[in-house]
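Hey, resending since the last one bounced:
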Amino acid sequence: MRRVKAFVLSYIILIGLWMIVGGTQPDEMIVGAITAFIISLVFAPRFALLGSIRLSPKALFATIMFIIVFSVELVKGAIDVAGRVISPSLPINPGIVKVRTRLQSDVGRIALANAITMTPGTMTVETNGEFFYIHWIDIKSEDIDAATAAIVTIFERHLEVMFG
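The C-alpha cells again:
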C-alpha cells in the first residue's frame, strides 16, 4: 500500500512540476503525463518516505496551516536577526540547546529539522532519535522543555497531523 501511495504522490508532484515548468498545452501535457508515469514507476519504490504522508482533509488543512505558521516564523526570525546585525548593541547569547520532538515518522522529523534550519536564528546541528540539537542565536533557556516550547512546538503540532 505504501508503494502505491508513493507512486501516486510522486506522479502528482511530477505532473505539478511539469505544469509549472513545461506549460499546459495538450501535447505538452501528454508528454508530461507519460514522462511522470515512467519516472514514478521506476523510482516510486525508492520514495518510501512519501508513503508516510497522510492524505486526508485534516492533513491538507494542517499543511496549509504549517505553511502559514512557517512563513510567519520565517519573517519574525529574519527581522530579529536583521535587527541584531544592524544594531550590534542588541544582546545575543548563542549556543546549542537540546530539544525533544514527539514526531515518530522519519519524514516528519526531516520536515521539522528543515523548518528549524530555514528559520533565521536557529539551525539543526544534529538529530538523535527524539532529541534534536539546535544552534540558537539567542538562547532564552537551556531547559529541554522550555527550549522545545520555544523552537519546536509551533511546527510540531502541524507536522504531527501531516506525518504522524
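The chain has a mean pLDDT of 87.

Sorry for the duplicate.
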